[in-house]
Structure to design on (72 residues):
């Protein structure tokens, strides 16, 4: 039997580096905007998966660079 994925089964993309880039507006640790960060707790599983897909595309579009250029 296949169990439906629940929102809490999907871990947050937060990596503990919480700094917003002033130019892009993205967190330098997880690539989310402030609205995406604050909206995470209220998202259902589909919303969280869609956001994780957007974050991966965002990182690839930026050349896959490490968003954490140094210590916090």
């Amino acid at each position: 039997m296949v169990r439906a994925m629940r929102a809490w089964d999907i871990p947050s993309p937060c990596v503990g580096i919480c700094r917003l880039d002033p130019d892009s507006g993205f967190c330098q640790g997880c690539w989310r905007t402030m609205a995406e960060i604050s909206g995470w707790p209220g998202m259902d599983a589909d919303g969280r998966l869609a956001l994780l897909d957007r974050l991966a595309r965002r990182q690839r579009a930026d050349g896959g660079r490490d968003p954490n250029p140094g210590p916090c």
User: Anything to note?
Assistant: The chain has two helices and no strands. The CA atoms of residues 7 and 42 lie 9 Å apart. The first helix runs from residue 34 to 39. The helical segments are 34-39, 45-61.
